[in-house]
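This part of the workshop introduces the protein records we will be handling. To make this concrete, we reproduce a full record directly below.
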Amino acid sequence: MAAPRVELVVVGDELQSGRVVDTNSAFLGRELAQRGWMPARRVVVGDLETDIRAALEAAAGADLVFVVGGLGPTPDDVTLDAVSRATGRPLVEHGPTLRRIERRFRMSGRRLPALSRRQARVLKGCRLFANPVGAVPGMILNWRGGRLVLLPGVPAELRALLEQRVLAALEQALPTAPLHSVRIRTTGVAEAAIATRSRPILRRFPSVTCGYYPGTAGVDVVLRSGSGRALVQCRSAVEKALGRAVYETGERDLAEVVLDLCRQRGIKLATAESCTGGLIGNLLTDVQGSSACYVGGVVAYANELKRELLGVDEATLAVYGAVSGPVARRMALGCCRALGADLGIAVSGVAGPGGGTKEKPVGLVWTAVAQDGRVRSRAHRFPGPRRAVKQRAAAAALNLARLVLLEPGRPKR
């Protein structure tokens, strides 16, 4: 069974300029790949009708063409006009969609602006899918021997339409050869080292393909195969080769993993941050239910606050300096005492671009984790601009907490 050819046309000046990151394509690609519909090409174009039509012509003949974005109410949302001209389908106003839009405005106590009626325009004769969280419906029409799928660019709306409406309809209409996949998430090891360790294993499993996806927190290894058995065997071998660098096989991030470990052990967690400025606390509180384990944090940027809030003594600061192992360790112990936590995570470093010295260069970060009076600390040297250093420091601190929590003999509450 041949897999359908899939192409993506993503519309938006904000994507072309880099003001907005295209998360829609990543989500759409993952969902399609799981069904054996691996996108062959993605084209990003601005809000210009001629460019959208040219992209559609280039994609013509594919089994599935997804057009994402440019379906809003403003005059620069010209995707529908471009598709209408490319397909020869006229635009008509869809009464049920217009009534839903009017009802949304009435419920918020506002009158319907004239421009908002544009969101009720649809291609004549297409199959419509009501938007569960927004105004613009999803649309599917037959075109050039394949199917053209139009989706709004607002991420929450696109996801809801795909998950609740569109994918089920496409699965009924198209042949599927599901592609099994697994995501192995790693941290603390460079992409080249990950690839070097994985390469001999992948040679043993020719039916498995592998992709490496680096980020500030680490490298994701995505394995795909038409054979579920081969994928399980390959995954197991890769996990063993990568060892403690693997923090998750699945979708959880580092903060979720740490919080789950704390929850399983009945441990309360606190943070003490200097150079990361509250980023670790932010990552933890992004996780639903984090309040069950995370009691709070202290952002102690100035040395005075390290002394007054975390109990770091003046002698330690004077001898070792704020960016040092002894200070990070005392910060971790101090946040446990100050906030009544069982486990404390601390970080102090030089995020740059200034402030570095020969002894303490830009990118030097100390992380520390304390539990029951015992403390582990580690020095790191992170490359990149200030934001990247902060993100890598936060990930390193969370990973050290993970490793501490996994140590044999660590107490449970």
